[in-house]
Amino acid sequence: MLCRSSKEKENVKPHEERKFTVFEKSLLSLFASCPICAGPAEARNVKIIGTMVKISQWCTDQKCQFNQMWFSQPFVKGKMPAGNLLMSASILLSGNC
């Protein structure tokens, strides 16, 4: 596979992106430190919708006060997680007649 520049990666359509299976503990470990002050941070699964997870992260340092919401998938037309749509389409289109 060819390496893509950051600019090229921004323009990749959801159905063309590589997808991975990730375990919850491994995913949450990525949110263990604050991206601003590098101090300890906490994260929690806020919502799971099909194959998409929404994670809330916040810095535990009172001075920093960083917080963010992170989504594991882009949305199609701002409403539906792309992975959910792609998964249902792949099941439908690969069915037996």
How would you describe this structure to a colleague?
By secondary structure, the chain is an alpha+beta fold. The chain is 24% helix and 27% strand. It contains 3 helices and 5 strands; from the N terminus they run H-H-E-E-E-E-E-H. The chain has helices at residues 6-10, 24-29, 82-93; strands at 41-49, 52-59, 67-71, 75-76, 80-81. The longest helix is centred in the last third of the chain and has 12 residues, at 82-93. It is elongated. The relative contact order is 0.15. The mean pLDDT is 89.
In whole angstroms, the N-to-C terminal distance is: 34 Å
Question: Order of strands side by side in the largest beta sheet?
Answer: 1-2-3
Radius of gyration: 17 Å
The H/E string reads HHEEEEEH
Overall structural class, as computed from helix and strand content, comes to alpha+beta
Biggest sheet details: 3 strands, antiparallel
Helical residues, percent: 10-25%
Task: Summarize this entry quickly.
The chain has helices at 6-10, 24-29, 82-93; strands spanning 41-49, 52-59, 67-71, 75-76, 80-81. By secondary structure, it is of the alpha+beta class.
What keywords describe this structure?
single chain; 97 residues; alpha+beta; three-stranded antiparallel beta sheet; two-stranded antiparallel ribbon
Protein topology:
Blueprint: H1 6-10, H2 24-29, E1 41-49, E2 52-59, E3 67-71, E4 75-76, E5 80-81, H3 82-93
Antiparallel strand pairs: 1-2, 2-3, 4-5
